[in-house]
Specification:
The structure is a single chain. The protein is built from six helices and five strands. It is of the alpha+beta class. Strands 2-3-1-4-5 form a five-stranded antiparallel sheet, sandwiched between helices. The chain is elongated, with a radius of gyration of 23 Å.
């Protein structure tokens, strides 16, 4: 076998391991992005513990197919960036936030689809996914609600105890 074929097999194995290790994978069209814009996006993904990579579509397709997922075949054409995420929502959220902060990016970077919990998500589902806060934010909100209720309960008990003491 040629060295080129062996190198491609290694890349497919690398992609498969990244897909398996990620909680979500987002595929996006990155047409017409400048080097500065790509660098800024990569940095945002890196801060969120995500990895932004550009692979050949055929290699990503082969990796998904070897994992038994064929839903991505129609989306793997044109310029495609692959984002491997350590959580469920950060990849889609970063794309949405980047386009809100810089409206010029709306036409340049468009999420195509995503892979979440062994399921294919289309473009509309990726948009919905981007609106969901991360798991850490949801847990913090829930704990804040619980703590607020407990604090109010303690305040009421304290007020009752003080009222009884003054009588």
């Amino acid at each position: 076998m040629s060295a080129n074929v062996e190198a491609k097999k290694l890349i497919v194995e690398e992609i498969k391991s990244k897909i398996s290790a990620s909680k979500s994978v987002v595929l996006a069209d990155y047409n017409k992005l400048t080097v500065l814009e790509v660098t800024a996006l990569r940095n945002k993904f890196k801060e969120a513990n995500c990895e932004y990579k550009v692979y050949k579509n055929t290699l990503v397709r082969k990796a998904f197919n070897e994992l038994g997922v064929t839903d991505f075949d129609k989306d793997l054409n044109g310029t495609t960036a692959t984002v491997f995420c350590a959580d469920e929502t950060s990849g889609a959220a970063i794309f949405a936030k980047a386009t809100k902060e810089n409206p010029a990016l709306v036409e340049k970077i468009v999420p195509k689809c995503a892979y979440l919990e062994n399921k294919y998500l289309d473009k509309a589902a990726v948009k919905e996914l981007s609106a969901i806060p991360s798991k850490d934010v949801l847990i913090a909100k829930m704990l804040g609600c619980l703590q607020s209720s407990i604090s109010k309960f303690v305040y009421v008990l304290d007020t009752i105890a003080k009222a009884k003491e003054s009588n």
